[in-house]
Write a structure and sequence with these properties.
The chain is mainly beta. It has a single domain (about 10-100), classed as Thrombin, subunit H (Beta Barrel). The protein is about 0% helix and about 45% strand. It has no helices and nine strands. The radius of gyration is 21 Å and the shape is elongated.
């Protein structure tokens, strides 16, 4: 019987709505190459080199995860979703911080206010 590392668990539940994006990086804490997975249900998870999910390293975002990138500070990563939300997640705690959001649905009509006539005096 094979033993598995205590900090990992098999990917039995898989990722709902499939894996949409992933990125590999060198984990600053361990020096291992890990993978961050973004799923269609908004799940972001850290996966060990053995392709098992690292326990406690999972977050739920609003919208399907469309892109992932390691942040310039090398302490976390950025995630974007189909609901036009941008998040910053830390490697150590996997804490989620909403960095920006905007309108994501179709715009059907734009109305500008009526322009007031200005009295021109000379």
């Amino acid at each position: 019987m094979r033993r598995r590392a205590a900090h990992t668990q098999p990917l039995l539940g898989k990722f709902s709505q499939g894996i949409q994006t992933l990125t590999a990086f060198t984990n600053p804490a361990t020096g291992n190459t890990n993978v961050i997975v973004g799923a269609g249900d908004g799940t972001v998870a850290l996966v060990a080199p053995s392709l098992k999910q690292v326990m406690g390293k999972k977050a739920q975002l609003i919208g399907a995860v469309t892109s992932l990138a390691v942040a310039p500070d090398n302490r976390g990563f950025l995630a974007a979703t189909s609901q036009s939300n941008r998040y910053y997640l830390t490697f150590h705690e996997f804490g989620v911080e909403l960095r920006g959001t905007c309108h994501y649905a179709a715009i059907n009509k734009v109305v500008f206010p009526a322009r007031e006539k200005q009295n021109e005096t000379k």
